[in-house]
Amino acid sequence: EALQMPTPTPSQGQPTLFFDITVKGETLGHVSFNLFADKVPKTAE
Questions:
Q1: Nearest partner of 13 among 42, 43, 38, 33, judged by Cα
Q2: Inter-CA distances, 15 with 11, 23, 26, 33, Å
Q3: What InterPro entries does the record tag this protein with (predicted)?
Q4: In this structure, what are the phi and psi dihedrals at residue 33, rounded to the nearest 5 degrees?
Q5: What's CA 31's distance to the chain center, in Å?
Q6: Domain ranges of the chain
Q7: Would you say 34 and 18 are in contact if contact means Cβ atoms under 8 Å apart?
Q8: What is the pTM of this model?
Q9: Bridge partner residues of 33 (DSSP)
Q10: First and final CA of the chain: distance in angstroms?
């Protein structure tokens, strides 16, 4: 059984990225995270 995590709220002014995980056509989950543009500006562009 999958662990259910709360949906994160986006930080103001920080880019939010996500990707879906699918194996052999079956969706396994969704991962989202914030990039801290003030700490890693090149990565957040």
A1: 38
A2: 8, 27, 28, 9
A3: Cyclophilin-like_dom_sf (IPR029000)
A4: -155, 160
A5: 4
A6: 15-44
A7: no
A8: 0.48
A9: 17
A10: 36
Looking at the chain, list the stretches that DSSP marks H as alpha helix, in order from N- to C-terminal side: 41-44
What is the distance between the alpha carbons of residues 36 and 23, in angstroms, rounded to a whole number? Answer: 29
Helix (H, G, I), strand (E, B) or coil at 1: coil
Q: What is the 8-class DSSP label of residue 35?
A: -
pLDDT digits (tens, 9 = 90+) for 1-45: 667 766 656 666 778 888 999 999 999 999 988 888 888 788 777
What's the pLDDT score for residue 21? Answer: 94
pLDDT at residue 34, as a whole number: 83
Amino acid, res. 1:
E
3-state SS assignment for residue 22: strand
